[in-house]
């Protein structure tokens, strides 16, 4: 008897795609059924050919593993990563010499009422380089720079490069312990700072005061310092948050930096006629674009003072006054500008990065600027690695495509490419990949891995820890983190670092830190000897402010008996956050507003802090307020009352009751001098302290 198998497909299937295997040893049949509204015939045909190819390879090499046989089609990745572009092999400072020669008398930098031409900038850099060399700074040294925003800051950074040394950026507002760790861990040979900041720092490094260095510049030659620097030498060492409780230093070379600036000069692009506003602290790597890109292209750099960088109202005034045409900021800062009463559109090229750009924010910004660019990249791959111009008809915010000489890959756990549309870890290769972590060979080996798609020069691949997928448009969509790393107002933060520091505090047995909306919330289990008090959380916060930057101090600290756990014994973070309750004020019973002004302030606080029924005695900062929320509060108060209050007013009037009384004062008496007593002999320490402490 003979027989023959005949296919009898069902009219409907329960799945979107169905594969039926049948037939005999001599007549193997694979039948495909699919939902035609989801798949095209061409797509199914491609799947069929791919499966047939895999089966043949398995039969030919049955000893090989599936991972060696199945290879994702890399056609789309090759198209994405076709980014080869030529750029100079000179170090950054030598390229800036050419601009000084070309633009000679053109204005290069402006800070408040002080400005300097390209020619004078170059001469001052040369003089300072000779001065630093005479103080012992040599090629290969690290030089700590703890200076406020100023023209002198830029001159100092470039002079260090001309010595063949690398600068270590140190934010003067960081806690002393953190600054001291960076200086000592980096083995910095020299520290350049101001008289005011020098007393804060404890280091064996030679301390040079900027006041002394610039007072005797004329004693040194204006000629170029003869030190050979190549593109593989380190330009700067920048510390980022680390999960061990201590920050880690990233080594960025001149090659990394010059490739980045060359690419940025082309796209998003900068013209010689542009005026770029710099608002970022030097301890945030994106300051590298602000300080160097204008000088790299012959444009003009406008440096804001600290007060302007913190207050959206002052920033809007400066944007208009200085006719700024280009600015870079985090989404949080752009939102701050909108909250500060930004009504008139500016002829501005806006760069937005450091955090995920919400679509709603992008739509608002597009009505205020000429161009909006979303930029993405970790410190380890030199500032930005991908760019995307956002258009009005975009319904999805992607990070776009890689910059010049940069490759983006999405990998699975086996370091294999995932197919377009599938989610994988975003990894970066190319000329922006830095030289790894300073004195952290273990962590460098973990994050900087051999590039499995190695080309001639791109032998290292950096694992970002970000998730993403390659879209059919050829762009990358970023989808958040794999680990517990978060970003707050653009700053990359390891929650584990905060936990490690909290666990060193007296009375704390263990802690868990999480993001709750836009705030950091810490849960604490105290040790057995702990004697709780009403202000225990405030004492812990005060201690943390001396150990961590302000943006890393949790706004809310909750004492609990024990951490909830999952079935496998791990801390159940979701349950912990879900079940947490928040006490709005531990020291006072709720007292409702008693006057019209108190009610106005209360309504604005509740809107900005997203909290209901705030007591008039509750402290703004203890409720989770910080400087960016304060800007919105002050802007709304100005809109309602017509009175512009300085941002520092919330420091000395930080309850609804006090702020309402302050508003009730005669408008003519509301001045900066009314905030703090005038110090005898002209000292300004008290006022400076107020402005520093308001950044939460």
UniProtKB/TrEMBL annotation:
Q: Which GO terms describe its cellular component?
A: cytoplasm
Superkingdom of the organism of origin: Bacteria
This one is known as Long-chain-fatty-acid--CoA ligase
Q: Which InterPro entries match?
A: AA_adenyl_dom, AB_hydrolase_fold, ACP-like_sf, AMP-bd_C, AMP-bd_C_sf, AMP-binding, AMP-binding_CS, AMP-dep_synth/lig_dom
Under the heading Pfam families, the entry gives:
AMP-binding (PF00501), AMP-binding_C (PF13193), PP-binding (PF00550)
Q: Which UniProt keywords apply?
A: Ligase, Phosphopantetheine, Phosphoprotein
PANTHER family named in the record: FATTY ACID SYNTHASE, NONRIBOSOMAL PEPTIDE SYNTHETASE
Q: What SMART domains does this protein's entry cite?
A: PKS_PP
- Which BP terms does GO give this entry? amino acid activation for nonribosomal peptide biosynthetic process; secondary metabolite biosynthetic process
Give a GO molecular function annotation for the protein.
long-chain fatty acid-CoA ligase activity
Q: What is its EC number?
A: 6.2.1.3
SUPFAM superfamilies xrefs? Acetyl-CoA synthetase-like (SSF56801), ACP-like (SSF47336)
Q: Where is the Carrier domain?
A: 592-667
């Amino acid at each position: 008897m003979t027989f023959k198998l005949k296919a009898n497909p069902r009219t409907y299937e329960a799945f979107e795609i169905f594969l039926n295997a049948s037939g005999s040893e001599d007549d193997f049949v694979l039948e495909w059924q699919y939902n035609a509204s989801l798949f095209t015939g061409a797509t199914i045909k491609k799947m069929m050919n791919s499966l047939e190819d895999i089966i043949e390879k398995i039969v030919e090499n049955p000893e090989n593993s599936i991972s060696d046989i199945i290879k994702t089609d890399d056609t789309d990745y090759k198209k994405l990563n076709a980014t080869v572009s030529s750029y100079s092999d000179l170090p950054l400072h030598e390229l800036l010499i050419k601009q000084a020669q070309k633009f000679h008398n053109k204005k290069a930098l402006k800070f408040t009422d002080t400005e300097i031409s390209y020619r004078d900038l170059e001469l001052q850099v040369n003089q300072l380089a000779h001065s630093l060399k005479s103080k012992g700074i040599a090629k290969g040294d690290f030089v700590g720079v703890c200076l406020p925003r100023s023209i002198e800051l830029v001159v100092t950074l470039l002079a260090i490069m001309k010595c063949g040394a690398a600068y270590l950026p140190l934010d003067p507002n960081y806690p002393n312990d953190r600054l001291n760790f960076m200086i000592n861990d980096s083995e910095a040979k020299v520290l350049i700072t101001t008289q005011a900041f020098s007393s804060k720092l404890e280091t064996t490094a030679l301390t040079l005061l900027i006041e002394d260095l610039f007072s005797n510049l004329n004693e040194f030659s204006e000629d170029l310092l003869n030190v050979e620097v190549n593109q593989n030498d380190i330009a700067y060492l920048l510390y980022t948050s680390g999960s061990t409780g201590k920050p880690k230093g990233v080594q960025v070379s001149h090659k990394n930096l010059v490739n980045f600036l060359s690419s940025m000069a082309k796209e998003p692009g900068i013209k010689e006629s542009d005026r770029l506003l710099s608002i970022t602290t030097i301890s945030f790597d994106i300051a590298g674009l602000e300080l160097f890109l204008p000088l790299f292209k012959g444009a003009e750099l406008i440096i804001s003072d600290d007060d302007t960088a913190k207050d959206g109202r002052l920033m809007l005034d400066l944007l208009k006054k200085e006719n700024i045409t280009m600015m870079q900021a985090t989404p949080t800062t752009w939102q701050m500008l909108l909250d500060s009463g930004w009504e008139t559109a500016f002829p501005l090229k806006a760069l937005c990065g450091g955090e995920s750009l919400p679509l709603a924010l992008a739509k608002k910004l597009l009505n205020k600027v000429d161009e909006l660019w979303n930029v993405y990249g970790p410190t380890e791959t030199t500032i930005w690695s991908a760019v995307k111009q956002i258009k009005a008809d975009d319904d999805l915010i992607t990070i776009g495509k890689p910059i010049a000489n940069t490759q983006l890959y999405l990998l699975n756990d086996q370091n294999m490419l995932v197919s377009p549309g599938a989610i994988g870890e975003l990894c970066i290769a190319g000329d922006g990949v830095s030289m790894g972590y300073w004195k952290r060979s273990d962590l460098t080996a973990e994050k900087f891995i051999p590039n499995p798609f190695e080309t001639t020069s791109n032998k290292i691949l950096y694992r970002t820890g970000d998730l993403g997928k390659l879209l059919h448009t050829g762009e990358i969509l970023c989808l958040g983190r794999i680990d517990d790393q978060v970003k707050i107002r653009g700053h990359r933060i390891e929650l584990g670092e905060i936990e490690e520091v909290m666990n060193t505090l007296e009375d704390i047995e263990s802690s868990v830190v999480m993001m709750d909306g836009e705030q950091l919330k810490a849960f604490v289990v105290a040790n057995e000897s702990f004697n709780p008090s009403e202000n225990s959380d405030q004492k812990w916060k005060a201690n943390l402010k001396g150990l961590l930057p302000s943006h890393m101090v949790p706004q809310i600290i909750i004492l609990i008996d024990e951490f909830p756990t999952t079935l496998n014994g791990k801390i159940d973070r979701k349950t912990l956050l879900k079940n947490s309750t928040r006490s709005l004020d531990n020291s006072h019973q709720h007292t409702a507003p008693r006057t019209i002004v108190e009610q106005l302030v209360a309504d604005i606080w509740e809107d900005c802090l997203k909290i209901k029924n705030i007591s008039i005695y509750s402290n703004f900062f203890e409720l989770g307020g910080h400087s960016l929320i304060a800007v919105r509060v002050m802007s709304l108060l100005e809109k309602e009352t017509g009175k512009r209050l300085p941002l520092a007013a919330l420091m000395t009037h930080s309850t609804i009751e006090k702020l309402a009384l302050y508003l009730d004062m005669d408008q003519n008496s509301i001045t900066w001098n009314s905030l703090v007593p005038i110090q005898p002999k002209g000292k300004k320490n008290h006022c400076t302290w107020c402005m520093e402490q308001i950044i939460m």
